[in-house]
Design brief:
The model has no long low-confidence stretch (mean pLDDT 95). By secondary structure, the chain is mostly helical. The chain has 2 helices and no strands. Helix content is 93%, strand content 0%.
């Protein structure tokens, strides 16, 4: 009869934590990609608006319209700067999530290795016990055969 792995509850806790770390890392990566996408969209909009301002200036605009263009570009630049900060923050969060994921998986692997060693020892012990039973059976059968021949 095999003995249960005494650290099985710990192995299950480590598996749950590793799964949770994996799920959280996935969410962090998705959030980072979303932040990058927003930044890219803002930068593209800024470039398009700056181009529109250049074209309007070339066609001739009033000083007030030019000031409006410049004020709006300044607000877009501010939004781009804030979004860059958001991307950097998201990158830090993702890095922390990766570190946590690696830490949890390292712990899980250590417990899993112990579990695999336990299973191997149990298989060895069972095989040895089965071999011992077969040897006893063969020995008895041999003794009975010898006794019946005499």
């Amino acid at each position: 009869m095999t003995q249960a792995f005494s650290l099985q509850p710990l192995l299950e806790v480590m598996q749950t934590r590793a799964d949770e770390a994996t799920r959280k890392l996935g969410q962090l990566i998705a959030a980072e990609q979303s932040q990058r996408s927003r930044l890219q969209m803002l930068e593209q909009y800024r470039d398009e608006y700056a181009q529109r301002m250049l074209e309007a200036t070339a066609d001739g605009i009033t000083r007030l319209i030019l000031l409006n263009y410049q004020a709006f570009l300044a607000r877009i630049d501010e939004a781009v700067a804030q979004q860059r900060n958001a991307v950097e923050s998201s990158e830090r969060n993702t890095k922390a999530g990766q570190d946590q994921w690696q830490d949890q998986n390292k712990k899980l692997k250590a417990i899993d290795t112990l579990s695999l060693r336990h299973d191997a020892r149990e298989r060895y012990r069972e095989n040895k016990q089965e071999q011992k039973l077969q040897d006893e059976f063969s020995s008895r059968k041999y003794s009975v055969d010898i006794a019946s021949e005499e």
